[in-house]
Design goal:
Number of strands: 12
Radius of gyration: 23 Å
Shape: globular
Largest sheet: 4 strands, antiparallel
Number of helices: 25
């Protein structure tokens, strides 16, 4: 696992841009940085250029997947005794309390805070820009390594596009349409490395940001290949990952034909081939601890995983034994609900097999082995170090659902059904012995037309609506016709499970315009987010606002008139905070909790 200190060494000038800007450091000239003048140095810098922050927890706690243990709620399992309960649990981090109430998360800059996310993603942008500057200015001389500079430039543009895509979806409103999104404030789109202080930026608007993302994305796709990835290609924007990113981008922009085009480039159109490359649940049979499950989920040899990112994230620690968790109604909506695809069991059999039910022994909430941590010791004697979580950023399973959504919106219902059916078959791709067990007890079956026409047509079932007319609030062109409702309900149900703990549920709520609420505290105060609530855009760090950058929650000022702010004024050092591996401090969940079966 790479470290922030190695990134700082690789492009020395960036250290002062993202630091507190001490006088002694600013006295040094920018040209004292390491010069990127060979293909090897370009590739080495790109190896460390990927963002080390994670949007997983920040977005999960901002979505409808998390509930307050201290608010009155029923048990997660609908088969348990239905007693309304509330606890008196503490929060893992003060910022969690703020974000759950849809307030600016300003109390900490630790991992899994908006500030850490903002800084690490712009740090990644900065590294990509250094590579592009060196290549574009002709500063790179051949060193006989055989690395392709065109591929390096393409990778850098894909990284830059991806970073801004996440930033705009976290800190701005969802994309509506080209005209409406001009009224929504964007994020600074940074395209040059900073070697001097005082360079000014503004946030522009969402349309402008999406246009620039698309330009970088298309130029990156045109030049990307796997030629430079001699080891661990799935830790990079390999060709498949680049197409998966393109499919997600065009889905959010609602250019559905391009979604299908890029999804097909990865998945193909043969159902048997696609099925063989979906998540393989058989290896979970030998798992005992969350660390075992993590190795299966995060395996870069898995055909399902297209790109994996190493991040500094304590997400599993936030989610177990503390105040805010996947508990009560959210747990029922995602995991503990009946379905025509399984019977008898309250829980989704895939959750039981795949390690989704790690818990403390009390009904304080559940977490999954897919986000289990890997601990990096800095002092083994003291038991301190850094927590890492490997993100499965793009997978074939999620890509299949993206294609299904595009097909639904294009009215290609037969194709959409085939993909939804294929996905549910993949959910049950267990080992033969495990399949026999759950088939006899839960009577599993893939999605059928009858299920679609009955179960997913009823709004009384989890994740289902009578209609999807709320999408038209986003844009008059975003229309889900009546015949598509059952398909969208099914997609919503399956997708909510697939992206659990990834943070993408928050993006889905925003881009679809779904209204949702958080119930807070023993007095059950309800905080509701309507489709156009300014708080759907998370607030940028306090330091950025104090420097003069326009807040996310301002809706009265046109985004194009935002005050320009110096780059070095609103970024700070995104160095992660060390924690203890001991259960006596912040709990190490790798071995301490059991999986509930």
């Amino acid at each position: 696992m790479r470290s922030i200190k190695y990134i700082a060494f690789a492009f020395g000038a960036s250290a002062f841009i993202f630091s507190g800007c001490s006088d002694s450091f600013l006295d040094k000239t920018p040209d004292e940085r390491v010069e990127i003048n060979t293909p090897t140095k370009c590739v080495q810098l790109l190896n460390t250029a990927y963002p080390e922050g994670s949007y997983g927890w920040v977005c999960e706690i901002s979505s409808d997947n998390i509930a307050d243990n201290n608010a009155p709620h029923y048990p997660s399992n609908p088969n348990a005794k239905q007693i309304l309960t509330h606890y008196n649990l503490g929060t893992y981090d003060r910022t969690d309390d703020e974000m759950y109430r849809f307030e600016p998360g300003v109390s900490s800059t630790n991992q899994d805070s908006p500030s850490f996310l903002w800084n690490t993603f712009y740090n990644s942008v900065h590294a990509a820009n250094y590579v592009l500057e060196a290549i574009n200015d002709g500063k790179v001389n051949s060193d006989g390594s055989g690395y392709d500079l065109k591929v390096a430039a393409a990778e850098a543009k894909l990284i830059r596009a991806y970073d801004h895509f996440i930033l705009v979806n976290v800190f701005s409103q969802a994309y509506k349409d080209p005209e409406a999104s001009k009224k929504d404030i964007g994020v600074p789109y940074v395209t040059v490395p900073e070697t001097n202080t005082g360079v000014k930026y503004d946030r522009g608007n969402v349309t402008e940001v999406y246009d620039k993302i698309q330009q970088d994305l298309e130029e990156g796709l045109a030049g990307i290949s796997d030629a430079n990835y001699r080891t661990a290609p799935k830790y990079h924007f390999n060709v498949n990952a680049a197409h998966a990113f393109a499919a997600r981008f065009y889905l959010f922009k609602r250019d559905y034909k391009k979604v299908i085009e890029h999804a097909n480039a990865v998945l193909g159109t043969d159902s048997a081939t696609i099925y063989s490359q979906l998540m393989d649940w058989a290896p979970f049979d030998s798992c005992a601890s969350s660390g075992d499950y993590a190795k299966v989920w995060q395996d870069f040899n898995s055909s399902n995983n297209l790109m994996i990112l190493g991040t500094y994230s304590n997400i599993m620690r936030h989610a177990l034994g503390y105040r805010f968790a996947l508990v009560g109604q959210p747990a029922r909506d995602v995991i503990f609900h009946s379905s025509p695809m399984w019977q008898s069991y309250a829980a989704n059999p895939s959750c039981l097999v795949g390690g989704y039910l790690f818990w403390t022994g009390e009904d304080y909430g559940y977490t999954a082995g897919k986000i289990a941590e890997r601990f990096q010791y800095t002092d083994r004697l003291a038991g301190t170090g850094f927590v890492h979580t490997m993100r499965r950023e793009f997978t074939r399973s999620e890509l299949l659902l993206e294609r299904a959504e595009a097909e639904i919106m294009l009215g290609q219902y037969d194709n959409a059904f085939q993909d939804l059916n294929l996905y549910t078959r993949g959910m049950q791709k267990f080992s033969p012995a495990t399949y026999r067990t759950y088939q006899s007890q839960a009577r599993m079956r893939p999605l059928s037309r009858d299920m679609l026409d009955s179960y997913y047509a009823l709004s009384s079932n989890p994740n289902c609506f009578d209609n999807w007319n709320f999408t038209q609030q986003m844009s008059s062109s975003f229309v889900v016709p009546a015949e598509a409702v059952k398909y969208m309900n099914c997609l919503n149900d399956l997708r909510r499970f697939e992206v659990l703990w990834d943070g993408l549920r928050f993006f889905d709520l925003k881009r679809w315009g779904i209204e949702y609420s958080h119930t807070y505290g023993p007095d059950a105060t309800v905080y509701t987010l309507k489709w156009n609530d300014p708080r759907r855009a998370l607030e940028i760090p306090a330091a950025a606002i104090q420097a003069g950058l326009q807040p996310s929650h301002s809706t009265t000022e046109a985004s194009g008139s935002a005050k320009k702010v110096a780059f070095d004024e609103f970024f700070s050092d995104p160095t992660p905070s060390a924690v203890s591996a001991s259960n006596n401090a912040k709990k190490d969940n790798s071995e301490s909790y059991v999986i509930k079966k």
